[in-house]
Amino acid sequence: MSYVPYPRPCGDFRTSYAADMTMFRTRGSTIMAWAGVALLLAMPLFASDYVLSQLILIGIYGIAALGLNVLVGFTGQISLGHSAFFGFGAFASAWLGTAHGVPPLISIPIAGVMTTALGMIFGIPAARLKGLYLAIATLAAQFILEDFFARAQWFTGGSSGAPAEPASLFGLALHTDKTYFYVVLFWFVLSYVGVANLMRTRDGRALIAVRDHYLSAEVMGISLARYRILSFGISSFFAGIGERSMRITSASCPPRHSPSCSPSSFSRWSSSAGSGRSRARCSALRSSCCCRRSCRPAPRRSPNSFPQCSRASPTSRRCRSGPPSSCS
Amino acid sequence: MKWDLLVQLLVNGLIVGMLYGVVAMCFTLIYKSTQVVNFAQGEFLVLGAWICWYFIVKWQLPFVAAFAFALVFTTLFGVLVQVVILRPLIGEPIISVIMVTIGLSIFMQAVMNWAFGNNAARFPNVFSSEKITIAGLNVETAYLMSFVLSLVIMVVFFYFSATRATAWRCGRPLTASRSPRASAYRSSRCSRWPGESPHWSPAWRVSCSGSSMRSPIRWPSSASRCFRRSSSAASILIVGAVVGGVIIGLLENFAEFIDGQYLHIGNMYTVAPFYVLIIILMIRPYGLFGTENIERM
User: What is this model's ipTM?
Assistant: First the structure.
């Protein structure tokens, strides 16, 4: 085989907490990430307007899908009403801009916070529900919100849609694709770094534990209701931010927009959401099982096919008492 | 208070609720036997209606023949979907199942738009008289016929599940496979049969849609409401589905009555059941008739 500069370890060989807390697994991925950001920063210099507009769309959807990843991929909850949150973020920021004169760049986080609140309200059923029943409840949330959009003319601007002012920064209007690209890139990088950091925190590990086995998590002292609702809130925040970004690109936002990107378009994203698992799962396993060597990359089949160590089963007891090699 | 309007609406709600019950029965039958949540069930219904419409309008077949053809077609289609799409999903995480069936529903919507056009088509008049008056209440003939048919189907379903050991050999593996997923693999029949169940309802919908065809969008939504009525045993399955369907049907019409008479908010017919659904799920997380799974670590 050819030479690979920074090979990815064929397992999890980190031996210190500091190594476990690193954001990138290898030096190679660190370099690639920085190079990617640098390339994107230079993109408007040589890319055509069409490519730029596509990149902007990619960034926007990327942010919103990131939120869904937190919910589905990391917490294991199902949301079919995510597109309604996405739409709510749009209307909220437009409403802030037109009714209260909030400048667009400030209204992005504010709309994100409003969407967070909404997501947490509709996440309350998630505290008690799981699986299919949660899917139904979030689907109901979708219909309720759609009804709200159609009804609240003051909020959505009716069927004609809400006008959005172009964003401006220090008097510099950001209405061209070139300048707007940087706004999206900023929020994109910020969101991804934020979520990557979230997964290194106590709360992030709690979310993963809830996904891996909710009963074990509860036994370990993790409040299920709190973290499920929190997860809904976080994911809605990114939906709100992402959609707010979209609002600036398209000058107006007919209510049609949000319902039409029905649960379906988001469920497509969540197929990639599942891929956020492998590393995260390992770290959750590590927290529940003393035996380090057992953290082989988990097979990505079904939640039921975890390595035995993740459960508080006789196997894991053996893990603790026996020598490390016995449970590899 | 307009009592006659209320009674009229409630009668309509009862009839529509029975249809919902039949749809819910198909949901629960599939879900309980294969653990597959079929979000494309609404499209199955619409497909059945379109096929029947096609045979009547384009081929000029009599209604009964068209109905039979639609029944056969949707049966075959249900088997095809089960074998090709749903069978590999048995035992997979529920999010994958939901995504696949939602994808299937989008695909079917697109194909039906392409094949039958975007606009709602009017079903030809099947029955001689549009309405029948029973005890001062106007009931559409199509609704009445569908009410009778849904009763028949429910009885057949009940018989199907009650006498599973003797008469119909397919019933037993169907219930046997419901809770432990592994046992679903045990007999090939149990994974084959439930796939055929989707056909019952679409064919059904054909008759009940009698005079008008609603937009395809509406059906998946109303059908998905009936999800939560899944129940543990096959016989309770039917009871739960029917009760759930009737509750939804009555609720819709009652909400419309309250809204039209007092509140004047509008659109309550569509939205009220969803509020109630969330409230019910908050109180009983496993549905009205569902049994709580006692889990161990």
Answer: 0.72
Across A210-214, A292-296, B161-165, the highest mean pLDDT is recorded for A210-214
Q: Structural domain boundaries of chain B?
A: 22-230
Taking 60 as the threshold, does the pLDDT of residue B283 lie above it? yes
Rounded CA-CA distance A264/B106 in Å is 8
**CA pair distance A241, A290, nearest whole angstrom:** 39
CATH topology of domain A27-274: ABC transporter involved in vitamin B12 uptake, BtuC (1.10.3470)
Specify the pTM.
0.70
DSSP state of B267: -
What b/e sequence results for A6-45 when a residue is b if at least 16 CB atoms lie within 10 Å of its CB, and e otherwise? Answer: eeeeeebebeeeeeeeeeeeeeeeeeebeeeeeebeebbe
pLDDT of residue A35: 94
pLDDT at A29: 86
User: What secondary structure, in 3-state letters, does A239-273 show?
Assistant: HHHHHHHHHHHCCEECCCHHHHCCHHHHHHHHHHH
Count of CB atoms situated within 10 Å of the CB of B130: 12
Q: Number of Cβ pairs closer than 8 Å across A and B? A: 90
Q: Which pLDDT band, with edges at 50, 70 and 90, does A37 fall under?
A: very high
Extents of the domains making up chain A: 27-274, 289-328
Q: Which of A69, A74, A130, A132 is most worth mutating to test chain B (most B CB atoms within 10 A of its CB)?
A: A132
8 Å CB contact of A132 and B221? no
| Closest in A78, A137, A263 to B278, CB measured | A137
Which of A79, A267, A272, A289 to mutate: most B Cβ within 10 Å? A267
Using a CB-CB cut-off of 8 Å, the residues of chain B touching A151 are 265-267
Q: Which residues of B touch A72 (CB under 8 A)?
A: 95
Instruction: Name the nearest CA neighbour of A286 among A300, A275, A298.
Output: A298
Over residues B242-255, the pLDDT tens digits come to 788 888 888 888 88
Q: Please give the residue of chain A at the shortest CA–CA distance from B97.
A: A132
